[in-house]
Amino acid sequence: MKEVKTDIVVIGGGPAGLASALRAGELGANVILVERDFELGGILNQCIHTGFGLSLLGVELTGPEYAETFIEKVLSLNNIKVFLSTMVLDIKDKTVYGVNKKDGLVMIRAGAIILAMGCRERTRGALGIPGERPAGIYTAGSAQRLINIEGLMPGKRVVVLGSGDIGMIMARRLLLEGAEVLGVLEKLPYPGGLTRNVVQCLEDFGIPLYLNHTISEIKGKYRVEGVIAENLLTREKFFMDVDTILLSVGLIPENELSKKIGVRLDPRTGGPIVDQNRETSVEGVFACGNVLQVHDLVDEVTRESYIAGEGAVRYISGKRKIEGVINLRPGENVRYIVPQRLSLPIDSPPYIYFRPQEPFTNCQVIGRSNGREFSLGSYEYARPGEMIKLRLKRELLDSNLDIEVSLVGEKG
Amino acid sequence: MKILTCIVCPVGCKIKIDEDGNIYGARCDRGVSFVKRELLSSERILTTTVKVDGGIVKVVPVKSNKPIPKERLREIVKKVSSLSVRAPIHRGDVIYSDEEVSLIATRSVGEAQDV
Question: What CATH superfamily is the domain A123-249?
Answer without folding.
Answer: FAD/NAD(P)-binding domain (3.50.50.60)
